[in-house]
Design brief:
The structure holds 2 protein chains of 2 kinds.
Chain A lengths: L1 E7 L7 E4 L3 E5 L6 H15 L24 E10 L2 E12 L4 E11 L2 E7 L2 E5 L5 E6 L17 H10 L2 E4 L9 E2 L13 H11 L4 H11 L3 E8 L5 E9 L2 E6 L5 H15 L6 E5 L7 H14 L6 E5 L3 H11 E6 L5 E5 L11 H6 L5
Parallel strand pairs in A: 3-16, 3-17, 10-15, 15-16
Antiparallel strand pairs in A: 1-2, 1-4, 4-5, 5-6, 6-7, 7-8, 8-9, 11-13, 12-13, 13-14, 17-18
Helix pairs in contact in A: 4-5
Chain B lengths: L6 E5 L2 H13 L7 E5 L7 H19 L6 E5 L7 H14 L11 E4 L5 H8 L20 H12 L9 H15 L1
Parallel strand pairs in B: 1-2, 1-3, 3-4
The chains are: A alpha+beta, B alpha/beta.
Chain lengths: ~375, ~180
């Protein structure tokens, strides 16, 4: 799991440090940087998947430099605990504001100060699992060099780190954009989950045995739901069909024919029940959007039960009272903008909650300080 | 299937919640009918939140008690007090909140683990326990599943393994009197 995230000089995050649990809820006013935290994780996952350059729009383009800072270097650190292996990944990106060019000044993976990989000023230094030095060579400093390292039997720790990061799902569901048809299986959900059908195909192939339990869970939350079927509509194209048994009739609707809320429910329960045990780390932006009030706590309780087990870790951002009151007390972190502009973090348990008030009510009244 | 909550769990902390939720599920009241109200752990203790919240939840319960199977479950640690003192505090909190004290026929149960829920968990782990010493917390709250299973089996056989912590015995009586009657 990710134990710590450090960000400096990215949007509103300056010298910003976040310590995460197996389940963490990020709370705070609009514009304080909650979604920026998710943007960083999304960018790192894209970069470390080897599918993007550092200046790509959804990675670290120059416009993501903190506007009130004059420094041109961005720093990102992710601490990850994989069983008993504590790893730290550090990325430094140098920007030229005039030309909007950027390059990776440093990329380093280490364990307790000992290197497993270093990419500095265009030169890669490979290390083995026991930290002994391997070959050195040049690389393109507009993209991640560590992402290009092939797995070997003497770099298993580095490989494991990459596998872990590539299974980070950063998502704010936009059900209206879900595509019904897919031609491939996608191992990772897009930022807005528009490729849900393709991702569903992937998890379905991986964990067929979970389908009955997943179907049962959805049957409890969607009236008349019978199951999901992938209908062949082209050579490689399949459409996600939702089957109903309701009002004395059996019928099917395409994914884009059911409601936004129903699509959100199917996606959220897929993340917890169907993707279980596949190592996905979840960063979800306002997962409560589109859900009926009655359905938020049951899903949340299921997620909380799964975290640290079937779901290694989840980080949620939300303003919703249901999430704040259920998770805030012991899993909430409050982000706040200081007068300097920097965002700081403190546990929600430090907020002054008195007189039987709920945490959400304290926040709604602005009484948290 | 629409959700229709018929049991509210009012509790101090995450371990209370995990234990109560699982036990109710074993007794046929699953997640879909449960509603959890948990202390925000802010300034002031969790038991204070439970007491302060109790009168409101009791009022909500009374407004709907004509509905079948409505129930309110309170879980609050005894800590340094006796079970009777803690139950009295909860009942007194109802009066302070302009509610009458619990009536015998109301499905409003107050469970008071003494010294705390970890005592019950240690007992269900097979240990001989007393209600004064502290016992270790579980690494994860959900790890109490196996303890709940054991308690459920004992309840089914109407036979708690002696020596039984008196607070657990009292809780079983409370369950039978208020929720099974």
């Amino acid at each position: 799991m990710i134990t710590r995230l450090y960000v400096d000089n990215y949007k509103c995050l300056v010298n910003f440090e976040l310590r995460l649990q197996e389940l963490t809820l990020l709370i705070g006013p609009n514009g304080v940087g909650k979604t920026s935290v998710l943007d960083v994780m999304f960018a790192l996952r894209r970069l470390l998947s080897g599918e993007a350059r550092v200046t790509d729009p959804d990675v670290f383009p120059t416009r993501t430099l903190t506007r009130w800072q004059t420094r041109n270097r961005q720093v990102f650190e992710v601490d990850v605990a994989l069983d008993r292996d504590d790893l730290r990944y550090r990325l430094e990106v140098d920007h030229e504001r005039g030309t909007r060019k950027a390059r990776i000044a440093l990329e380093r993976l280490e364990s307790r100060g000992q290197p497993l990989f270093v990419f500095e000023m265009g030169e890669v230094h490979l290390y083995r699992d026991n930290h002994s030095q391997g070959p050195t060579f040049g690389a393109d400093w507009t993209e991640s060099a560590v992402a290009r390292v092939p797995p070997r039997n003497d770099n298993t720790r580095l490989t494991r780190f990459l596998d872990f990061v590539r299974k980070v799902i950063v998502c704010g569901l936009y059900p209206a954009g879900f595509q019904t048809e897919s031609t491939t299986e996608d191992p990772v959900l897009n930022r807005d989950a528009r490729n849900f059908s393709a991702w569903y195909r992937h998890v379905l192939l991986e964990r067929q045995e979970l389908v009955p339990e997943f179907t049962k869970a959805i049957q409890e939350v969607i009236d008349g739901f019978r199951g999901i079927r992938m209908e062949k509509v082209g050579l490689d194209t399949r459409a996600l069909m939702v089957m109903f048994d309701q009002f004395g009739e059996r019928y099917e609707l395409r994914l884009d024919e059911i409601s936004d809320g129903q699509r959100a429910l199917i996606a959220l329960y897929s993340l917890v029940r169907l993707a279980a045990g596949q190592g996905y780390t979840l960063f979800l932006d306002e997962p409560d959007n589109y859900l009926a009030l009655t359905e938020i706590q049951p899903w949340l309780v299921g997620l909380a039960d799964a975290c640290g087990g079937d779901v290694p870790q989840a980080v949620l951002c939300s303003h919703h009272p249901e999430l704040i009151d259920y998770l805030g007390g012991d899993r909430g972190l409050v982000l706040k903008r200081e007068s300097s502009g920097a965002t700081v973090v403190r546990p929600a348990s430090e907020l002054a909650v008195e007189g039987g008030l709920k945490l959400s009510e304290v926040i709604a009244r602005g009484w948290e300080s | 299937m629409s959700r229709n909550v018929n049991v509210v769990i009012l509790c101090e902390d995450r371990q209370h919640e995990a234990f109560a939720r699982r036990f109710l599920e074993k007794m046929g009241r699953g997640l879909r009918v449960q509603r959890v109200e948990i202390s925000p752990k802010g300034r002031g203790s969790g038991e204070q939140f439970v007491r302060e919240r109790f009168a409101k939840e009791l009022a909500y319960y009374r407004a709907r008690q004509h509905r079948v199977e409505q129930a309110l479950i309170v879980v609050i640690d005894a800590d340094r007090r006796t079970v009777a003192q803690r139950v009295e505090q909860v009942d007194a909190a109802a009066v302070e909140g302009d509610q009458e004290r619990r009536r015998p026929n109301e499905r409003v149960a107050v469970f008071v683990p003494a010294r705390n829920i970890e005592t019950w968990i240690a007992y269900l782990d097979g240990q001989t326990v007393n209600e004064d010493d502290p016992y270790p917390r579980l690494k994860r709250e959900r790890d109490c599943q196996r303890h709940v299973e054991r308690l459920y089996q004992m309840c089914q056989q109407s036979a708690l393994r002696p020596p039984v912590p008196p607070s657990l015995e009292a809780a079983c009586s409370e369950y039978r009197a208020r929720l099974q009657a």
